[in-house]
User: Fold this.
Amino acid sequence: MWRDAEIAAEIRRIAREELGIDRDVRDDEELARALDSLALLSLVVAVEDRFRIRISEEDGAGATTLADLAALVERKLARANAGVA
Assistant:
């Protein structure tokens, strides 16, 4: 089972290695300030693909920082493991 810190580290790796984002985003930094809209959208899609989850616009609106996004992914993974949509 993934934990927030592991998920955040994996999101950073995705951003750096798969998307070529050369900037390391801090856990508490607002993603919209750190990344342009295309990079942010690409990151969300890559995170969905990596963790095999779907992030709705509503979910995404509540995830303003990297820590928020990691927590959202952890919740979605926990629900999937529990058999809840």
